[in-house]
Write a structure and sequence with these properties.
The chain is 41% helix and 18% strand. By secondary structure, it is of the alpha/beta class. A seven-stranded parallel β-sheet has the order 3-2-1-4-5-10-14, sandwiched between helices. Strands 11, 13, 15 and 17 form a four-stranded mixed β-sheet that branches.
Length: 375
């Protein structure tokens, strides 16, 4: 039934449209990831109609509007919490879902309403929009779908500047290479992680029931120019911005020593992967991939500080707060083996190149960025 529905919808479109994605809607399109995705897809094929939908809630997203206009991307002010806003953006044959309340700490100590309405109800509206128009869907999920307690239970040992997995240690879904898609999903993961995992499950049901082609990428820490970094999301940009503009920084949690580790991924490396996936949607539809920098592009906060000092030429006094917040984990590195086998993709930009790119962007656009990212 679902596949007959999809065939009927696509039969009204010009030949080749489904594979070439002539009409693209990027939700969260004025945000960091969404704007870069929209601009890249338009740049790859200027004949495409690319629309960026965003509610402009996050401070700094308004700075993206001129970039979108200059790049030929049409901006629609709207909110995925309102299905009517999606319909006003028009039909599409590819929907890239980049919109979200992105903080894992959202809802702690306050109402989770915006988080749930955006990350869960909003996803339903996006999937419904895709169903009505027979659109392919790329859903950007998160590594935070993996539960907190099992991640904290990993056998970690302290190196001079970072935590590492004990040599030779391995278990279901984890090893020295990092966390794979087989890692346990049992346990609490924060409301943020729960909304994203629930959205993944809904996307799979829409694929199975209605014949939509859906790709899910569970992303680790994404970063790069035009990310408006904050303490709870976008910490790599925030760290470099403080070294450029001044301000306070502190190692928070796990003893306050700054040895916790994340892998990072330049947004352009993510876009390189999306190009490969969109070139063969049938092959990747229904797949869930862990996507990140991997062990080779991982960094502790202590290492991040030294790199920022070296690149910026400025040294800051780093504070220490030993208290660990409920949703924090000491170590997360992505095992990208599955997506690499499926596509041949691997990250190409190392940590120093990522930080140099961010530093150059901060210096070039200092006048407009310092009021947003400064102390």
């Amino acid at each position: 039934m679902g596949r007959r529905f999809r065939t009927r919808v696509l039969s009204f479109q010009a030949p080749g449209v489904a594979s070439n994605h002539r009409k693209i809607l990027v939700t969260g399109g004025a945000g960091f990831v969404g704007s870069n995705v929209a601009l890249s897809l338009k740049r790859d094929d200027p004949g495409r109609d690319v629309v960026a939908l965003d509610n402009l809630k996050r401070r700094g997203s308004e700075l993206t509007l001129e970039r979108l206009r200059a790049g030929g991307v049409r901006f629609e002010h709207g909110d995925i919490r309102n299905a009517e806003d999606l319909e006003a953006a028009g039909e599409c044959d590819l929907l890239v879902e980049c919109s979200a309340e992105p903080s894992v700490h959202a809802g702690y100590g306050g109402s989770p309403a915006y988080l749930i309405n955006t990350n869960l109800t909003g996803t339903v509206h996006c999937l419904e929009h895709a169903r009505r128009h027979g659109s392919d869907v790329v859903f950007l999920s998160t590594s935070r779908v993996y539960p907190i307690a099992p991640l904290r239970a990993l056998p970690l040992i302290e190196d001079a500047d970072r935590l590492v997995v004990a040599p030779g240690a391995a278990g279901r879904g984890w090893s020295e290479r990092g966390i794979s898609e087989d890692f346990s999903l049992g346990g609490s993961r924060s409301l943020y992680g729960a909304t994203k995992l629930s959205s993944e499950l809904l996307a799979e049901e829409y694929r199975a029931m209605y014949g939509l082609r859906v790709i899910v990428n569970r992303c680790g820490v994404l970063t790069g120019p035009w990310q408006m970094g904050k303490v709870d999301q976008g910490v790599v940009v925030l760290w470099m911005a403080r070294h450029v503009f001044g301000g306070r920084l502190a190692y928070m949690g796990f003893g306050g020593q700054g040895k916790q580790v994340r892998d990072v991924l330049h947004v352009e490396d993510l876009i390189d992967l999306l190009r490969l996936q969109l070139a063969d949607v049938d092959r990747h539809s229904g797949q869930v991939y862990n996507v990140g920098g991997g062990h080779g592009v991982s960094v502790s906060l202590r290492e991040l500080t030294r790199a920022c000092e070296r690149i910026s030429g400025r040294k800051l006094e780093i504070g220490s707060d030993a208290g660990t917040r409920d949703a924090d984990v000491p170590y997360y590195v992505t095992d990208c083996s599955l997506v690499t086998r499926a596509t041949g993709w691997t990250p190409r930009r190392p940590v120093d190149a990522i930080l140099t790119d961010i530093h150059s962007w901060l210096m070039t656009h200092r006048d407009v960025l310092e009021p947003v990212l400064g102390r």
